[in-house]
């Protein structure tokens, strides 16, 4: 019996090596065209044929749509024994459970390593049999790459993979069809793929990873590419800690997420539209609300990373304050979950253009195109109609531009009368606080920002406390002006 067990891995490796060669374009287990002819028609007819799947393709997964403060750490490939065990030890040290996409060839060669990954509480998924370029394979070859990997992993671990990812993360429609044919949940990409460093300091490495630590994110590292892969685990752990997020297994992240409706299925998706007839459009430039009593609206412009915006949201929650966020939509497009998180916290989400131009420098058509694109991106991100307010970047606007904007459906253009100047990186928290408290009066709208590397977060508690000591109630812009969204 022991001799049979010793022979099995060797025979399996030979079989898999032959299968991998056969999967390559133009290759055959029988040695090419001549050998195929020798095999004859009987062998050809006996060869099982893969029938192309005609059902719905598996879904694509570049990230998971969720407002929860969690993300997945995933690995591609299977490093050598020493490297992988060091990686597993570091994950254990920081209490991180990760998802490993393992190639079938390596799983067959090192079954004990694959079993250890599972025994330590990590997740095993499909990295294809031999990590070939799937875009260069035909349907049957793609099927073999994915199916054989599933078979090997299930045989070695007792777990059937639910997700597949290619070596590079690239895929085509055939990969999605095969995944569906195999009963898999999704073809996975990643929101961030960490490659080798290029001389960065440890602090620079941390900040880089922290920038990409996002809600619902799928962070990826290739264990066979990255030098000393175990050394990056403390950086991932520290980045997640600083942002206030936690790592979960990919399948748990997916189960906690939700499906995003297409834009056209969201009520109000067409509330804003292009309109060249703007000459007589009526608009309201709102700088404050006279006779509002002891109310002030806090607003935040532009965009930032999860680290900064989550900190702002936490401060607002601590003081039970709701604010209005004017979002730069090209940032939202790259990180829709964060926009949804702002809404989920009970704050207002509104339009601050797509690309943050000075609106008076654009032609009417280009301006409307930019604003419309922003509206659609924000609507799809938060899965509902945003607050129907618009704020121009820098606050600069003229009568013609205001009419162009109003003609689209944004007749309420929200400006401000209190400028905190917090966008200036050398503007200290005390200066920000003093600027707000000295300018604020009944019915004011306060301009702040959600930019990285400024002192806004540091100043915000003092701003809130200072305004409340003066007897002000902090509200959203919609509440201040008495409008319904």
Describe the structure.
- The protein has 485 residues and is of the alpha/beta class.
- It has three domains: 2-46; 59-256, Glycoside hydrolase/deacetylase (TIM Barrel), CATH 3.20.20; 264-481, Alpha-Beta Barrel (TIM Barrel).
- 42% of the residues lie in helices and 13% in strands.
- The chain has helices at residues 2-23, 33-46, 81-93, 104-109, 111-119, 139-157, 173-181, 202-211, 233-243, 250-256, 306-318, 329-334, 336-344, 364-382, 399-406, 429-439, 456-469, 477-481; strands at residues 59-61, 70-76, 99-102, 123-126, 163-164, 186-188, 192-194, 218-222, 246-247, 284-286, 295-302, 324-327, 348-351, 412-414, 418-419, 445-449, 473-475.
- The strands form four sheets. Strands 2, 3, 4, 7, 8 and 9 form a six-stranded parallel β-sheet that branches. Strands 11, 12, 13, 15, 16 and 17 form a six-stranded parallel β-sheet that branches. Strands 1-6-5 form a three-stranded parallel β-sheet.
- β7 (192-194), α8 (202-211) and β8 (218-222) form a beta-alpha-beta unit.
- The protein is globular, with a radius of gyration of 28 Å.
- The termini are far apart.
- The relative contact order is 0.11.
- Residues 1-11 and 17-46 have low confidence and may be disordered.
Topology summary:
Layout: H1 2-23, H2 33-46, E1 59-61, E2 70-76, H3 81-93, E3 99-102, H4 104-109, H5 111-119, E4 123-126, H6 139-157, E5 163-164, H7 173-181, E6 186-188, E7 192-194, H8 202-211, E8 218-222, H9 233-243, E9 246-247, H10 250-256, E10 284-286, E11 295-302, H11 306-318, E12 324-327, H12 329-334, H13 336-344, E13 348-351, H14 364-382, H15 399-406, E14 412-414, E15 418-419, H16 429-439, E16 445-449, H17 456-469, E17 473-475, H18 477-481
Parallel strand pairs: 1-6, 2-3, 2-8, 2-9, 3-4, 5-6, 7-8, 10-14, 11-12, 11-16, 11-17, 12-13, 15-16
Helix pairs in contact: 1-6, 6-7, 8-9, 11-17, 13-14, 16-17
